[in-house]
């Protein structure tokens, strides 16, 4: 059951590659991280977001984080070009 849910999440994210997203991550002890960036790539157990800050940092989260509500994502709908070879 959990494997199918993870595959469904990955397939959903695959359909949004290159789009801008807002990520809200619970970092524990009442700390919430809210960042915006571009969904860069998906892997078998994680997805990667290129943050919109000036450094262009890459941050990754696991699909389990989405299942357990430790991370929430919201698609803002603006498509961005993902550089080739990423």
TrEMBL record:
Pfam families: VEG (PF06257). InterPro entries: Protein_Veg (IPR009366). GO terms for biological process: regulation of DNA-templated transcription. This is Veg family protein. It comes from Candidatus Fermentithermobacillus carboniphilus.
């Amino acid at each position: 059951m959990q494997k199918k849910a993870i595959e469904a999440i990955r397939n959903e994210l695959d359909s949004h590659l290159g789009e801008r997203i807002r990520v809200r991550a619970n970092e524990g002890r009442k700390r919430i991280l809210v960042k915006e960036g571009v969904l860069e790539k998906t892997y078998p157990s994680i997805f990667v977001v290129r943050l919109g800050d000036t450094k262009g940092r890459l941050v990754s989260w696991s699909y389990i984080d989405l299942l357990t509500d430790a991370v929430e994502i919201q698609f803002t709908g603006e498509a961005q070009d993902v550089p080739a070879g990423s």
